[in-house]
Structure formats: C-alpha cells, structure tokens
Amino acid sequence: MAVLELPQWTALAPALVFVATALALFVIDSINPHTRNRSLLAGTTAVGALAALGVTVWFMLAGVGTPTAEGGLGVVELFGGQFVVDQMTLFFTTVVSIVTALVAVASYDYMADHTYQSEYYSLIMLAATGMAAMAAANSLVTVFIALELASLPSYALVAILKDNRGSVEAGLKYFLIGALSSAIFLYGISLVYGATGHLQLEAIADNLDGADAYGGLLGLGILMLIGGFAYKTASVPFHFWAPEAYEGAPAPISAFLSSASKAAGFVIAFRVFTTAFPVEATTAVIGIDWTTAFVVLAIVTMTLGNFAAATQDNVKRMLAYSSIGHAGYALIGLAGLSADGGELVMGAAMMHLFVYGFMNTGAFLFVALAEYWGVGRTFEDYNGLARQAPVACAALGIFMFSLAGIPPLGGFWSKYILFTETIGAAGTNGAMLVVAAALVVNSALSLYYYSRLVKAVWIEDPIGERDALAQPIGLYAAIVVAAVLTVVALPAFGPIADAAQQAAAVAIG
Amino acid sequence: MNDWIAIGALALVGLLIPLGMMAVSFLLRPSVPETSKRATYESGEVPTGGTRIRFNIQYYMVALLFLVFDIETVLLFPWAVVYQDALAAEEYGIVHALGPMIAFVVILLIGFAWAWRTGAVQWARTPEQVEAGADR
Fold it and tell me: Any stretches that span the bilayer, and where are they (chain B) (predicted)?
C-alpha cells in the first residue's frame, strides 16, 4: 500500500472526496437544470460517500494516523497543525460516511416527488464535508469553520420541505438557536485566544501556564466552548432545538443530524478538550476541574432525554429525546478524563457513538418508511405494522433493543463497556459512581419506551383498516443494511473496540 | 507635551465646528413656519404605503453572488501581490503558487455556472411563467 509516496495533503482525501461529489452534483444539475433524475443524483451521492468510506478504511488499514511506534505511518499534521489526521479522525469519518451513504439511499424514495432534487443531495454532501473536516480540525479556527460548514447546509436541509409548516418552523428554530450558540462559541474562542494568545490546539496547551493572570477569562472561555459543543451534540443546555428540528425535518435528515452530526460534534469536543486543555494544567490555571461540568451535563442530559422520551406519544419526538439521552451517555467520555483510565472511558464513549450511528440511523429511517406509507405519527398509528411489513419491523426490533442495550446486540456491548470503564474510573474520581448509576437507571427506563414501540408494531392490533403497504427499494435497502450493521457490529466488536481505544489513547497521550 | 493633548484639541475643534455652524445659522436664518416643512420629504414627495416592503428574492440572489465575488477579490489580491516572489522562491514552484488559486477559482466557477443555469440571475418572472414551472 503505497500511501507513503502520496503528498501529505492527500491525508484529507475523505473530506476531499465529499467536496468533489458535491461539485459533481452541481455540474450534473448545471448540465440539465432542475433534473429529476433521482437515480443519477442519489447514486452519485451514495457512490461518493462509499468512496470516502473506502478511502478512510484503506487509510486505517494502511496505518495512516497510527503512531510510528506502533508500526503505523505516523500522525499527519497539515498546514502548520491546523488539521490533523489521526486514528480518531479516521474513526469518526467512517461513522459520517456510512451514515451519509445510508441517508442518500433512503432519500431516493423518501424525497421522490420533491422538486429540488440536486439541491437536496448537494447540501447533504456539503454538510458531510463539514463533518469530515470537523473530525480533522486541530485549531479553534478550523473547528469553527468546519462547524459552520456542517451547520449551514443542515439548516437548509431541515427546512427543505418548503410548503410544510412543521419543516419551515423547525428550520427557523434550528437556525436561530444555531446562530446563538455559534455566537457564544465564537466569543469563547476569542476569550481563549485572549488568555493564551494561540488558536492552534497544541499551542494553547503549551501556553496555558502563561495564562495564569487570566484564569477567570480562560474559565469563562472554556464554559462558552462547552456551550457550542452542547449545541452540536444536542446536549443540555442547548438541546431544545433537537425535538423540534428532528420532528419537522424530513426523516432521513433527522437520521443524518442525530447520528453523523452528533458524532462530528463529539469529535471536536473530544479533540479540543483532550489536546488544548489537559486536565491538570488547566485546573492549575482556572481553579476548577472542567470534567466536573461534564459530569453534571452528562447526568442531566441523559436523565432529561430519557424522562422526556418516556412521555412522548409521537414516535419521531420519542426518538429525538432518546437521541438527547444518548448524547448524555457519550458525554461520560469527557466526564471521566480526570480519573485514571480516563482514556478507556473516552474510548468506550467513541465505541458507543459508532454503534449508535447505525442503530439510530436505522430507527429514524424506519420512521421515514412509516411517513412514506403515510400511516401517521403516534405509537397507536404504528399498531400492527408487523403484519404487513415483517422485514422492516424485525429491523425496527433490532434497532430498538440495541438502543435500549439488550444483550446480545451491539448497543448492549458498547453500553456495557462504557459502564465497566466508568466504574473502573470511579476509583480515583468518586463522581463517576454517580454517573455509572445514572447510566444504569436511564438504560432501564429507556427499555420502557423502546419496547413500547416494538409492542405497538408486533403485538397490538391495527386501529383501522390499512391499504397494502408499498415496499420502496431504497428505504428498505437502507434499513436492512443498518440492521445488518447493527448485528454484525457484534462479531466485529473486537476491532472496533481496539480502534476506539487506540484512538482515545493517542488523543490523550 | 503629551500626544493626547493634540488629539483632544482635534476632537474639540471637530465638535465646535458643527455646533458653531448650527448656532450661526440659528441666529441668521429668517423664521417662516409652514406645514409642508413637517412632511417626511421636504422635496414635496408624498410617501405612500407601509414601511414593511417585501423585496423580491432576486435582490438577495444578486447580493449573495456579489458577496461571493467580493470575497474572491479579497483573496486574489494578496495572492497576486506575493505571486512573483513565490515563483522566484526556491521552495515553491509554479504548482504551489498557482495550483491552489486555480482550484479555488474553478470551485467558484462551478458554483457560479450552477447558479446561472438554475436561474438565480434570471430576472423576475411573470405569474404565468411561475405557474408554468410550479413547484411544491
């Protein structure tokens, strides 16, 4: 594998493939304006996403980003350290590209009678570019630009059903909260810059001791950065856009935002906090251990998400709140960093995000299928669907039980490892015991509302007569692939776990 | 002498000149009260309609396209200034100096061609034309 002979900048190839695909879609639409050739557009998008996936996996296997000490080709730093390609970058790019491919295939049917086809797919590609760039960003400037590049297309995508009130309202709310949190994030960046004099993450870490006189400013800046990350990952206190945006948006876009966008939000949070603000050095300057903030946020986020999800009647809203709950689980990765074995906790959180990427995308795609059928939005409307569509409903059962964390599905193992590592970290940080308890209690609660949906689909009788349900190829294919990936994640869990743990260790190291 | 004294003097003069002009005209001008002086436009134009006007979407399209090319100029200008030096330098060849800018302009041109082809720069359409290309 002749990676070494390639120039350095080719390490960004996954993001470049996304850009090239977006431009190809523009060219297709320029040659034949307002084309409705869905096979061509969705096909190009899916091929682009799969190509990005292929390049990423190839890089992983060839050892790009793996430290030379472990027989790899070394971490690639680009443009004076503004971008970095390491194992964490490749790990999260994998998640983003798989989810993008699934969403593109599912959209083929879901957006069938939409007027603006090429706009839709090119916006998806541009958002995916931003997410891939977020995975590689290594300076507060590139983090912010990548974040905006991922966010701006998302606003348009949420509001793309122009004549649907819910979609437009969701888009506006999403945009306003996004603008607010971007402003807060940017202000946080300026405060960190003011205190340390640097924007590049390693440079910030090297200059932390010089910021002694500005401890308060730096602390405030870090707090504001947390606000920006909380928005992108849909965690408390910037979570309230999520139920609105996910409910109003086209369901494949909800899947895209709640899986890929959330994973990308977590990768920048992980990278900024592990690289720029090492726990001990930062605590010495600002006087507070910032992991405390994440302990609180993790507990509040998972509790709020799960309790709110348990009270919903609308399936899409239930999934939206459950996605907030899962953000709480992933936040444990940052909460555990001050303890010994913190990198194991973070690796477990990355693992959970990986598995979550498939099962959550699949669950939202099932909602997309239900919307395609037009059966309605509430649990009762889903009653008895299994009699007419057993395959899709079997897949739904897999997603739901995996999200709840029932053995032997992938979701169980990622939660189990997260739990054991959290308990392991509790030896040096007592707060982790509370976090671990919250994780178990919330998982038990989540089983209630996940199984409620499975019960509605498989056991309850339909309320009224339903017409025969169509079997759209694209949606079915995407759902089945997501289900297969959720199941296959089980035997493949060893390599995934290794990759996540190594990536976390290198990021912290 | 402290430099700030000169700046303070300048600020003082800058404040005194307009105040002085207003005071002098207040003393010299004749007083002719008249109702038309209280109109919105003293030229005599009678304002009609509300102040909340909806602009045609075309306005924003053109503004956005203008912005794109404005930013392009901002990037092209410093690049053009250092271009000769970059060519002459040993470590950068023509590929390093010219390549990224060509890539940037090509991306911009693809976007512009797309906007043109999909009618972003087309002038506003009549209701009949809009009807013909109705969308949902």
Answer: 6-28, 59-82, 94-116
